[in-house]
Amino acid sequence: MDDEIAARVYSDPLARWFVTEAYRITDTLALIAATGQQIIDAGIPLWRLAYFQFTLHPEIAGKAYTWRRGGEAEVGEAPHGLRQEARFLESPLFTVFDERRTVRVRLEDDEPTAPVLRELKQDGATDYVAEPLLFSTGHIDALSLMTDVSGGFSRRDLDRLYQLKFAFTRIVEVHSLRDTAVHLLDAYVGREAGQRILAGDVRRGGGQAIEAVIWYCDLRGFTTLSDRLPRDAVIALLNAYFGAMGGAVTAAGGEILKFMGDAMLAIFPIAGATARADAVTQAVRAAIAAEDAITALNTQRDAAGEPQVRFGLALHLGEVLFGNIGASARLDFTVIGPAVNHAARLEKLCAVLDRPVVVSDAIAALLPHDRTVPLGRHPLKGIAAPQAVYALRCATI
Fold first, then answer.
1. pLDDT above 70: percentage of residues in the chain
2. Strand runs (DSSP E) across 17-150, as ranges?
3. Contacts of 382 (CB under 8 A, 6+ apart)
4. Number of helices and strands (H, E) in the chain?
5. Which domains does the chain have, with CATH numbers?
6. At what angle do helices 276-303 and 231-251 cross, to 10 degrees?
7. CB-based burial, 26-54: b 16+ in 10 Å, e otherwise
8. What would the pLDDT profile of 114-164 be if each residue is shown by its tens digit?
């Protein structure tokens, strides 16, 4: 029986392509474009193909990959809440996902009620087929195929496409699982750390000594606020605050490593000695952008009668160990070392000196002299000698 199945598979060039060449395509958009063209080359009158991928991502519900004959493949993002929107509930995809069954609509013969099908018919589609793609995990994606030939897909066309659906499902499941892993690691440990984890850097104690600008910030008066504000208001406050801080860091090329209560630790890695000044400049620009974002946020909160967001932020430069720290079965990919402790201690001076942002002597040394304000030398817990501390003078750098 196995020989008979193999013979049938390899007798169809399209099926043979799916079980040999298609697995080598690692980019999903490229896979969709190649799949559409291979179906055309196999003699099936495909006009349009779409793959709908739902995934785990903090900002989007998934992606829609589309390809049309004679055109390029495209990808669009689906927002969270899509499954509750009328356009989705009225589309054939709702049935595909909700009932896990194939939907076929002969557009040439029928007048569809779903807006998306009416649009496709106006564009020239004559037949529409949507298939559930059942993953081994129980997850479901969907594939839709359309033709514009008179009479629609033939029975032989549909039989071939149905058989190929299973090979296509296994391929896109690999793509989907990889994308989900990347998205979740980016969201929970950061892009650089996530890439290193996926590359196999998972041994406890393993790490790399790197030089970096260290960013450490926290909220002022958060304990008092959390005691008197409702839980939802506290969560909204934290999200708004971290959104401003985190957005400034990532926009400037920094890496957010962790959130600790109301504190955030981030780094701007330095590729080499000549890159120190660039990393410092980017970090300082991010600090200025974060302060501006908090100012704008406080304007909104004042108008809504909500308490203002007050913060402290310290920047320091030094060598850190970037790697896996933790228990045997629960690790944290982060940075440790005296430089991290220095930044955390330095941040405590923000309240003492009544400054939202302070920087160390190592940072100030790489900035123009007229861009910083000396604040004197101050003792830092756990550090032997008093340390020079500076504020930022300018609004831009």
1. 96
2. 48-54, 62-68, 74-78, 103-105, 127-134, 140-147
3. 341, 345
4. 14, 14
5. 2-188 (3.30.450.40), 190-392 (3.30.70.1230)
6. 150
7. eebbebbbbbbbbbbebebbbbbbbbbbb
8. 999 999 999 999 999 999 999 999 999 999 999 999 999 999 999 989 888
Give 234-293 pLDDT, tens digit per residue.
Answer: 999 999 999 999 999 999 999 999 999 999 999 999 987 678 999 999 999 999 999 999
Distances (CA, A) of 21 to 14, 37, 135, 171, 360: 10, 13, 21, 11, 55
List strand residue ranges (DSSP E) for the chain, in order. Answer: 48-54, 62-68, 74-78, 103-105, 127-134, 140-147, 207-219, 255-260, 263-270, 311-327, 330-336, 357-360, 372-378, 387-392
Distance, CA of 226 to CA of 177 (rounded, Å): 38
Cα four-point dihedral sign 83, 87, 90, 93: negative
Assign 45 to helix, strand or coil: coil
